[in-house]
Amino acid sequence: MAPLLALRDVDARYGPVQALRRVALTVDEGEVVAILGANGAGKTTTLRAISGTVRRTGTIEFAGRSLIRRGPEAAARLGIAHVPEGRGTFSELTVWENLRLGAHVRRGSLKDDFRRVLEYFPWLERRRSQQAGTLSGGEQQMLAIARAVMQRPRLLLLDEPSLGLAPLVVAEIFRIVGELNTREGTAVLLVEQNARTSLAAASRAYVLEVGSVAYEGASDDLAAHDAIRRSYLGY
Amino acid sequence: MTAALSTLRTPWRRVALGQWLVAALLAAVVVFLVVGSLQSSLFLQQTISGLANGGIYASLAVALVLIYRATEVINFAQGAIATFTTYVGWQLLAWGFHYWPMFALTIALAFVGGFVCELVAIRPVERRGNVLTVVIATIGLLILLEGLIGRIWGNEVKFMPSPFPARIYHLGGAAFSLQDLGTIGISIAAVVVLWLFFRFTKVGLAMRAAAVRPAAARLVGVRVSWMLSLGWGLAAALGAVSGLLAAASPSVLLQPSMMDGVLIYAFAAAVLGGLESAAGAVVAALLIGVLLSLLSSYVSWVTPALLLPVAFVLMLVVLLLKPTGLFGRTRVRKV
After folding, report:
1. Residue closest to B269 by CA, chosen among B59, B110, B96
2. How many domains are there within chain B?
3. Which one-letter DSSP state was computed for residue A4?
4. Is B290 part of any domain?
5. Interval B227-256 mean pLDDT
């Protein structure tokens, strides 16, 4: 069976700086895959290349369609939810308006979707008319994921969901992402600074070094790999 | 980064104080107007006709705010677009349309026209240039439209009828013209309809999202560039309401420069309101209308020729005291 998402020979650049060099990776339907790497290795750029928020060349196929000539609007319509670095919260709008925007590409009633979102994030009910910018960092990260759930994506791109959050909140977020994956069958491509957390959440992982894939494999194998253990896990 | 953020952010106490002051000021103005109107019928009459003028300024001011919020550009062509569409309305009447069908059709045509203007004149410039290039493009559009009006309809003054019967209602000693009441009603209704659209419809929400966070809006699938075109269409439609109402007033004549003065008052209102706040622009526009109307009838040295300078002095004073406008919030910019 063809993978849900397949990247081959993907290059991306910011002006004169080449950020990705011949990146190849795949994500299967319903799979959780992690991207590891140091700062500036191209993790965020890989997600941006998939959703089309950065200029890129090569081959990117999602559910049998090429994404390479499509922008982020089209990627969202095809079923990719990108929760970007900094969460992409519409802080000027209310929580409920943020959730409505999540369902922008979908037709039909919002009620069922909202009920589904509340199963994961029951506290959103009380905060629905609150301005999103007044939520705490952890709440905003959860709102961003809730917004993605409203979109009913086949693939969720998660960029550094743990950034700047307390360990307990991070654990809660990863628990919810795992639940989303098992209950809805949403595939997840996860970028995370914290290698241990992401290897625990993902079944496979890619390690990026200066814009190229250096290692790839099952999470357990990578966690046991000497060089990776020393560089990214720190023991 | 955090240090820069904290110096840019106004302490909440000061924000709250400023908002209280503005609220108190507005309450005082309302009390003043109500008491004055109860005391004197001339005062009441002047207040009502000031509100009617303010309503005309308000629709154009909200049109300016709409485009400014989405692109941070002041659309200098807004007045010319309104004048042009009013001429279109005049033409429709000349072809035998009745007033209200003409009114609706003109607004629809203005919407399409604004949409096309953005597509043809603004979008190609915006893609390559910056805010300043877009501003210059709007000035070009202004000159083009004014030239077109002269070419198509000539520069001599035309007569535009009013949809309201020239009836005067007497209440106590005061006389209200149906003209003024109708103008107030329609301009307020236009702004309220627009507010409902932005608040409750999917497209309205998408337009707001595209205006505040274009990149994030794209990620959830909003077609941001179409939202900008839609914004221009809505702004032109509001401008058409303003132009048609202005032309219906007995004191305004339909000519290529008809909206020049209105645009300046509308601009003053938009700035006073904080440029980003439609509600602020409406309140400021009504205030300007009433203030000018009262000044011209109670202060003998304020002749009609002096009204524009007075509006400017008012704007300057408010901006000196509160640089973000009456309703503007200090923006937190991340650096």
Report:
1. B59
2. 1
3. S
4. yes
5. 93
Its domain, for residue B291, covers: 2-321
> pLDDT per residue over A51-94, tens digit each?
999 999 999 999 999 999 999 999 999 999 999 988 889 999 99
Give the closest of A53, A71, A104 to B220, CB-based. Answer: A104
Nearest to B222 among A73, A84, A92 (CB): A73
Nearest Cβ partner for B208 among A93, A102, A147: A93
Locate A47 and state its tokens: 């997600």
Q: What is the ipTM of this complex?
A: 0.91
Full-model pTM:
0.87
Over residues A5-57, the pLDDT tens digits come to 999 999 999 988 899 999 999 999 999 999 998 888 999 999 999 999 999 99
- Residue A56, phi then psi, degrees to nearest 5: -150, 160
Q: Which domains does chain A have, with CATH numbers?
A: 5-233 (3.40.50.300)
Interface membership of A90 toward B (CB under 8 Å)? yes
Q: Is A140 on the interface with B (CB under 8 A)?
A: no
Q: Are B98 and B77 in contact (CB under 8 A)?
A: no
Q: Do B213 and A105 touch (CB under 8 A)?
A: no
| Cα–Cα distances in angstroms (integers) from residue B205 to residues A142, B86, B198, B230, in the given order | 21, 29, 6, 12
Name the phi and psi angles at A215, rounded to 5: -135, 155
